[in-house]
Design goal:
The termini are far apart. The protein has helices spanning about 50-60, 80-90, 95-110, 140-150, 165-170, 180-185, 200-215, and strands spanning about 1-5, 10, 25-30, 40-45, 65, 70, 120, 125, 135, 190. Helix content is about 40%, strand content about 15%. The protein is globular, with a radius of gyration of 21 Å. The mean pLDDT is about 95. The chain has seven helices and ten strands. The protein binds pyridoxal-5'-phosphate. Pyridoxal-5'-phosphate (PLP) binds near residues 5, 6, 30 and 40.
């Protein structure tokens, strides 16, 4: 079961038609996603006819034949208005993902000489959807504050890793450490990325970040 919530349009270089690693991939259409809708929503894809039939029933009150219910299900259908909207947006997905990729390359090229900064390494076997562009730095909170003051909005994805959420803290008894999750909590910062970001705005973000390191 794959969480593909952020990977609309990503593909394997070796086999572009292969869309999933496992049996089911779940996509989110939350409005902020690359393929975001006007309402909440999502989709599951599968190669298995059995899983397909099961999911179709589960999303529709456990019913395969209208008004006959063989199992307990949910009301989890995507509404038609969102579907129409998403079909239109889907046509632009590859173009917009390519734009995100160019913006990511530009950020890296213009910031890579700053030794306090590091970036995620991309898997060379896949083409990413470039949903987020993250930078990592020890002075993350100070940089965020500085960018806020300069009217540049950034987001911390995510301030509390699932394993550190209050609920899981209560039920996970193990003292195991999760250093990668902790690094994301303390050091990751998402910079603006996407079609709303103009060239000029990106230049300003880059020069403001550079200014922060000169002052540091
Ligand atoms: C990686 C990941 N998994 C799951 C979700 C949850 O998606 P939804 O809000 O559509 O249920 C999100 C959305 O933020 C996500 O980014």
């Amino acid at each position: 079961l794959e969480d593909s919530s952020q990977s609309h349009g990503a593909f394997f270089l070796k086999n572009k038609k292969k869309k999933l690693w496992g049996s089911i991939a779940i996509f989110s259409f939350y409005p902020g996603k690359n393929l975001g809708s006007i309402t909440d929503g999502g989709a599951a894809i599968t190669n298995s006819k059995n899983i397909f039939d099961k999911l179709k029933s589960l999303r529709n009150y456990g019913s395969k034949i209208k008004y006959y219910h063989d199992e307990i299900g949910f009301n989890s259908r995507l509404n038609s208005t969102s579907a129409i909207f998403l079909r239109q947006k889907l046509k632009k997905l590859n173009f917009e993902n390519a734009l995100r990729s160019r913006q990511e390359k530009k950020y890296i090229n213009k910031l890579k000489d700053i030794k306090q900064l590091s970036f995620l390494r991309r898997n060379t076997k896949v083409v990413s959807s470039h949903h987020l562009f993250l930078i990592f730095l020890k002075e993350r909170n100070k940089l965020k504050e500085f960018l806020d003051k300069n009217q540049i909005e950034t987001i911390i994805h995510y301030p509390v890793a699932p394993v550190n959420q209050k609920y899981y803290k209560k039920i996970i008894k193990s003292k195991k450490k999760y250093p990668i999750a902790s690094k994301f909590e303390k050091e990751a910062l998402s910079l603006p990325l996407g079609k709303h970001l103009s060239n000029k705005q990106q230049d300003l973000i880059i020069s403001t970040i550079r200014k922060f390191f000169i002052k540091l």
